[in-house]
């Protein structure tokens, strides 16, 4: 088993918070949609949208943090694995921004304001267009969502592979 100095190899506290809160926001956003689909209560679709916009803002802040935060050194691994890691992380970041943007555009092109926890509303800032609303709905639900699931499963699978097969204590860097 490789021993890693956790203090040297850990992500910054801010990066760790961004990581885990992003995961929680994604999970809560998904749960709100699941509740809406099963209970058909508009409260849940409103919360789904508000948490989705929260995730968008959080991801923008996360990217800013990532630009200005020192990255821990990469663990020893084949170059192809390092490349796959970088590409999959980039894809997750891009998808976690694209998903709420597509949802927002679906709403406003559908002529619906987006209420943010009763604090304020994002107004309809485009000319409503049913065709574009459907396009962004399809993008949001049928393309981006399955991609988020696939890349999240890949991300978690790779972390578990490192933790339990390679036994390189990778997960300690993010907790």
List keywords for this structure.
175 residues, mainly alpha, two-stranded antiparallel sheet, 5 helices, elongated
Layout: helices, strands, pairs:
Layout: H1 6-9, H2 13-39, H3 42-68, H4 79-109, E1 114-116, E2 120-122, H5 130-165
Antiparallel strand pairs: 1-2
Helix pairs in contact: 2-3, 3-4, 4-5
Low-confidence stretches: 1-8
Largest sheet composition: 2 strands, antiparallel
Shape: elongated
Helix content: over 70%
Number of DSSP strands?
2
Helix-strand string: HHHHEEH
Class from helix and strand fractions: mainly alpha
Question: How many individual helices?
Answer: 5
Strand-residue fraction?
A: under 5%
Spatial order of the strands in the main sheet? 1-2
Describe this structure in words.
- This protein has 175 residues and is mainly alpha-helical.
- The chain is built from five helices and two strands.
- The chain has helices at 6-9, 13-39, 42-68, 79-109, 130-165, and strands at residues 114-116, 120-122.
- A two-stranded antiparallel sheet has the order 1-2.
- Helix 2 (13-39) runs antiparallel to helix 3.
- The protein starts with 5 loop residues before the first helix and ends in a 10-residue tail after the last helix.
Short overview:
Helices cover 71% and strands 3% of the residues. With 175 residues, it is mainly α.
